[in-house]
Amino acid sequence: MAKGKGKGKGEQDEKLPTTVAKEIIPVEIEDQMKKSYLAYAMSVIVGRALPDVRDGLKPVHRRILHAMNERAWRQDRAYVKSAKIVGEVIGNYHPHGDSAVYDTMVRMAQPFSLRQVLIDGQGNFGSVDGDPAAAYRYTEARLTGMAEELLRDIDKETVNFNDNFDGTRREPQVLPAAWPNLLVNGSSGIAVGMATKIPPHNLKEVVSALELLIDNPDVSIKELMKKVPAPDFPTGGIIIGKDGLKSAYTTGRGSIKIRAVANIEENSRGREAIIVTEIPYEVRKNDLLARIADLVNSKKIEGISEIRDESDRTGMRIVFELRKEAQANIVLNQLYQHTALQINYGIIFLALVNQEPKLLNLKQMLQHYLTHRREVIERRTKYDLRKAEERAHILEGLKIALDFIDEVIKIIRKSETVDIARSSLMKRFKLSEIQSNAILEMRLQKLTSLESKKILEELNEIKKLIGELKAILKSESKMLGIIKSELGVVTQKHGIDRASEVSLVDADSLKMDTEDLIQNENEVITISEGGYIRRMPLDTFKRQHRGGKGVISGGKKEDALKHVHFCQSLDYLLFFSTRGKVFYMKAYEVPEATKDARGKHIKGFLSLGADEVVTVIRSVTDFSEKKYLLMLTRLGIIKKLELSQISNAKKGGVMAMQFKASEKDYLVDVAIVDDKDDIFMATAEGAGLRTNLGKMRPQGRAASGIIGMTLEGQDYMSGLDVVRGNKSFLLVVSESGYGKRVKYDEFGSKGRGGKGMAFFKSTDKTGKAVAIRTVTEDAEVIVTTLSGMVLRSEVKQIALQGRTASGVRVVDITAGDKVADMTVYIPETTTK
């Protein structure tokens, strides 16, 4: 503001700080942030998130156990309110929120969380369902015997103590840990930039590995893994992953799969059910069932009709009732694939070693525990030795007093004060002050001969004990023997059998193929003249009586329905084109559609040329080397090709048959045949030829085939099929919807190339023969028309007639419409 001028409107006096720093120290913000963040990170790592390798506990766990032990809330005492325990812990040792302490205490009491529980809880401490524990004012607790084993000898200077947060109490840096808690109960935690996830193990197995390591310090990890083959989860389950376990135990990191234990049972109604009795570790049952129910409702998992939880206090039992047509193994694989009935479990053996986080292998963890126990045994022995020597020193003084009891009494009676008596005794008998005090405090009853004898006996025992304790301190093998012995006692008293099953199957072999998740159901495939393909369940079409009109099943009226084929979901669909190429894809890869939907264009799945269309669809379950393709062209050419030769066709296609350039020929039918089958070829005008394939040699993929049947006039081939025994019939359907069955016995086997004999009488009323199929009495036929009508009917409703008959009406055709194709469904042994 200019001098001599008043303050303007809104202006105020500038306020200066009343105190000024004596010295300003410039600091690089990068350095300050790094320093502060590292301090925070180490605080989290050491003081909160990671367990100590020696006792396997984090500070909060250790403080809870120590506080309860100090107040004698042990196994042999009455239960104490959890609120009282939480108050004791946060008031004296752990100045954090009560919920953090109580949640930790709850987990230590849950038998489904810890392999060996450390808190004996009374009341609601939660469940495997995911239910929370009751508030701490409602529950009670005390230490378990296993927790007391962790605390045993803590009063013998076996571990170091620190001041608590306000310096009023002392708390242990680590517990003596008479058993390897880190591996047995495991631990998990997320620190800054690192995490630990140590799974629980079986006490008996871990102790067995420790005993082996004690006996042979140079033992390999491979040998230790024979003792500790895998984790042992309190909820059981099946552990899978040999490579993951090997990696975890040798490098400190690995991954395994945990799979629920499930069995397939048949109920009283003859339906199959999946029974789950064990679920993976840390999976909440209620969440699991809710997820499965959602997947069932959304039809991502099919085949389950009902879900029931029949679990009770005797154990877990989850029941998945299956539908009649469902395949239990496939449904179970779907459950493993899409739900927490199978989980990945990552293992990270990270723990604090001398207050530093270290990634450890199995042997290192065991070695660190043994080092800790050796130190505990040494410190306990030194403590016991000191106490024994102190007691021996007193007993030596008492012995001297007993040897000179009269003189001792005389000295004491003469002394005016206790101090004079003490000094006189020390001077006369060369005693220490401690010994003199013990003599002065000795009761007169000790002067009896019996009591005197007890003192001498005790002195001898103490001298013997001192010798033993000194021998222990001088001998490494004796110390290790004590460790081994004490571990054996704990195991014998508290050891339990393994809960988790270890599978010898490697995790990679469990990578489920898509087909493991698919029901092998009956399907109907259709292709329109425009090239649109779709897949529909067989049950889409209900059975009708012969002569019905069928149901409409087409996308657009202007796109005629050309092909229909029955197959199963896991079959290979073979598509034969006008160029003589064959393509294949799995049936389930064809998009499922409703009967009113148009479907997807086939060129989205197969690499068909611009003017190339599909003329035949067939299906096989595999590309067996003992099977053959028998292909028939419109002009009567046939070709026998080994099925295995097209196994590499896939969606790109391979050549199956060459056509002569001078003739516009194409495939009209294909059959899957054995080497010496009888086959039946049929023309549109009604001529048929039965011949045997025994003398017909298979050809290469580039061959053009040989003459199969001689045609007359404008006739052309309409189809072929395999003659399958005495119980099969020839079924023919004509353009106008007429059809009949004929016994194959009416046709003698002839040589190929002939004109054949009549099998059907083609008239203006019936139209020409569209397709033939071999059928049995229990078969069903599905007939489609160009307009998209589909009729499903029983074959036995179609009359059995002679060779020259015209048949009966199979489907009622409207004016201008024609039969396009037919396919046959034969239960159990379907002809494809």
UniProtKB/TrEMBL annotation:
GO molecular function, one term: DNA binding
Keywords of this entry: ATP-binding, Cytoplasm, DNA-binding, Isomerase, Nucleotide-binding, Topoisomerase
Example GO biological process: DNA topological change
Catalytic activity: ATP-dependent breakage, passage and rejoining of double-stranded DNA
Listed EC numbers: 5.6.2.2
Keyword Calcium included in the entry's annotation: no
Single GO cellular component term: DNA topoisomerase type II (double strand cut, ATP-hydrolyzing) complex
UniProt motif (GyrA-box) ranges: 544-550
Coiled coil regions, renumbered to chain: none
Domain of life according to the entry: Bacteria
Predominant place of localization: cytoplasm
Pfam families cross-referenced by the UniProt entry: DNA_gyraseA_C, DNA_topoisoIV
All residue ranges annotated as the Topo IIA-type catalytic domain in the record: 50-517
Active site residues according to the UniProt entry: Y138 (o-(5'-phospho-dna)-tyrosine intermediate)
Entry's localization field: Cytoplasm
Additional remark text: Few gyrases are as efficient as E.coli at forming negative supercoils. Not all organisms have 2 type II topoisomerases; in organisms with a single type II topoisomerase this enzyme also has to decatenate newly replicated chromosomes.
Similarity field: Belongs to the type II topoisomerase GyrA/ParC subunit family.
Complex formation: Heterotetramer composed of ParC and ParE. Heterotetramer, composed of two GyrA and two GyrB chains. In the heterotetramer, GyrA contains the active site tyrosine that forms a transient covalent intermediate with DNA, while GyrB binds cofactors and catalyzes ATP hydrolysis.
Family matches, as PANTHER family: DNA GYRASE SUBUNIT A, CHLOROPLASTIC_MITOCHONDRIAL (PTHR43493:SF5), DNA GYRASE/TOPOISOMERASE SUBUNIT A (PTHR43493)
Physiological role: A type II topoisomerase that negatively supercoils closed circular double-stranded (ds) DNA in an ATP-dependent manner to modulate DNA topology and maintain chromosomes in an underwound state. Negative supercoiling favors strand separation, and DNA replication, transcription, recombination and repair, all of which involve strand separation. Also able to catalyze the interconversion of other topological isomers of dsDNA rings, including catenanes and knotted rings. Type II topoisomerases break and join 2 DNA strands simultaneously in an ATP-dependent manner.
Name this polypeptide is given: DNA gyrase subunit A
Natural source organism: Turneriella parva (strain ATCC BAA-1111 / DSM 21527 / NCTC 11395 / H)
Higher taxonomy: Bacteria, Pseudomonadati, Spirochaetota, Spirochaetia, Leptospirales
